[in-house]
Specification:
Blueprint: E1 2-6, H1 11-17, H2 20-28, E2 32-36, E3 50-52, E4 60-62, H3 64-72, E5 94-104, H4 107-116, E6 119-124, H5 132-138, E7 141-144, H6 154-165, E8 198-199, E9 202-203, H7 213-231
Parallel strand pairs: 1-2, 1-6, 5-6, 5-7
Antiparallel strand pairs: 3-4, 8-9
Helix pairs in contact: 3-5, 4-6
């Protein structure tokens, strides 16, 4: 699966992408991440990518023309209609803008994006936002990672790459892990324990030491439901 990120600050992403499971997945060719800087598509000597807001107001907006040139440089970004597999044409990548005004990102969306299995384009917003004309012309979906505002879209983009990649076969060492995590089946994950069996007077629940897999399964399901009711009753 391929991710293309349009970002004014690619250096903010490299540390995340070049470490841990994402780095290993890239080395194996399981995922591919491309970073494109819209400044490279500015046409003036100052590499200007933003301008003042028409009608007044604070801050600057990312320009539609510069973003469009950067977006158009991506292979098959504007390749017409969604791909016709019978004719062998490729599907156009889905273009996502990271924005506080977007749809809330969650487990379901991460899996949905992974199931597309091809190519996601992530636009990292900055300043006061993006000229609406670029959004209307090029963006399929606006996504938010929470009800707060960040200094830029790089961290949300990295979160989406990380969350989606976990569903891509070959990224996780144990692919069963993704189906036992929190939010799978609309439940939070049950408590987990490891060695030592006693620590600072706190002991591991006896059932987990029993070797009785049926009892352990029942305990985990009950604890998952209890935790979800206590912390996220909206999921039930």
């Amino acid at each position: 699966m391929k991710f293309t990120l349009l970002t004014l600050f690619p250096e903010k992403l490299k540390g995340i992408l070049d470490s841990g499971l994402l780095a290993k997945a890239r080395e194996k060719g399981v995922i591919d991440v491309e970073l494109i800087n819209p400044r490279d598509f500015a046409e003036d000597k100052h590499r200007t990518v933003d301008a003042a807001v028409f009608g007044g107001g604070p801050g600057m907006l990312l320009r539609a023309d510069v973003l469009y040139r950067a977006w158009s440089s991506i292979e098959n970004s504007n390749g017409g209609e969604e791909g016709d597999d019978q004719n062998g044409s490729k599907k156009s990548p889905k273009t996502i803008l990271l924005s506080p005004q977007g749809l809330a990102f969650d487990h379901r969306l991460a899996k949905e994006f992974a199931d597309l299995g091809e190519h996601l384009i992530l636009i990292c917003g900055h300043y006061e936002g993006v000229d609406q004309r670029f959004i209307d012309e090029c963006v399929d979906l606006e996504i938010s990672i929470g009800d707060y505002v960040l200094t830029g879209g790089e961290l949300p983009a990295a979160i989406i790459v990380d969350a989606v990649s976990r569903f891509v076969p070959g990224v996780l060492g144990n692919e069963a892990s993704v189906y036992e995590d929190s939010f799978n089946g609309d439940r939070l994950k049950y408590p987990q324990y490891t060695r030592p069996a006693e620590w600072r007077g706190r002991t591991v629940p006896e059932v987990l030491l029993s070797g009785n897999h049926g009892r352990i399964k029942d305990w985990r399901e009950a604890e998952s439901l209890r935790r979800t009711r206590a912390r996220r009753p909206d999921l039930i």
